[in-house]
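Page 42, continued from yesterday. The earlier attempt failed because a stray header line got pasted into the input along with the sequence. Redoing it now with the clean sequence only.
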Amino acid sequence: MDQKQRQRIIDKHRDSLTRYGYHPNALYWSGRDIQEIRFKVLADIGIQDGDSVLDVGCGFGDFKSWAVAQDIQLNYTGIDLSPDILAQAKSRHADGVFLLGDLFDMGFDEKSFDWVILSGALNEQLHDDSTYAKAVIKQMYTLCRKGVAFNMLDARFLKAHDLHSQIPEDILLYCQQICSDWLLVDDYLKNDFSMYMRRV
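This time it went through. C-alpha cells are written below.
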C-alpha cells in the first residue's frame, strides 16, 4: 500500500467519524448486528479466555468489547491506520494496546500472538490484483502461535469498483500454500467469507 492509498483511507475514516461518531457506520459496517456476526465467526476458530490477540485494522477495538460480552478476556493488541479512530479505541479500552500504522510498520517478532484476526480491513480497493491482501495474510500467519482468522468480501455475490472482493476458492488456494490446517467458512452472510489458518 503506497502513501497516497494510506492517506486516502485515513481521510475517509476521519470524514466518516465526523459524520457518524462512535458507530459501526463510521467503519463502513451496515450495523452492529452484522459486525458481531463476523466477530463470532472469527472467534470460533478457537479463541479462548486469556489468549493474546492481534487485531489488524482494529477500528474502535469493538472485537475486544464483543469478547468481553462473551466472558472472554483477551490480551488484546489492535493496530489501525486511522489516528482518529484509534484515539476512540484507546479511550474505550484502557487495558488494550493500540498501535498506529500498517501491519508492515510493526516490528513484531514471529509468533508474537496466539491469534491474529482481521475483520473488514482487506475491503479497500487498491487495484493491485490482491498483492497487498495476500502479503497481509502471509504476515499474519507469521505472527501467530495458534492461528489466523480473517474475512473478505465474496466476489461471487458482491462486485463494486470501490471495494476489494475475492473469489473464496482463490484465497483458499493461496492459504493452502502457507499452511496445512485451513478452513473456508462461507455460510453466515451472503456477501462475506472467512478463512481459518491454524498452526499444526
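Notes: DSSP finds six helices and eight strands in the chain.
Reminder to self: strip header lines before submitting.
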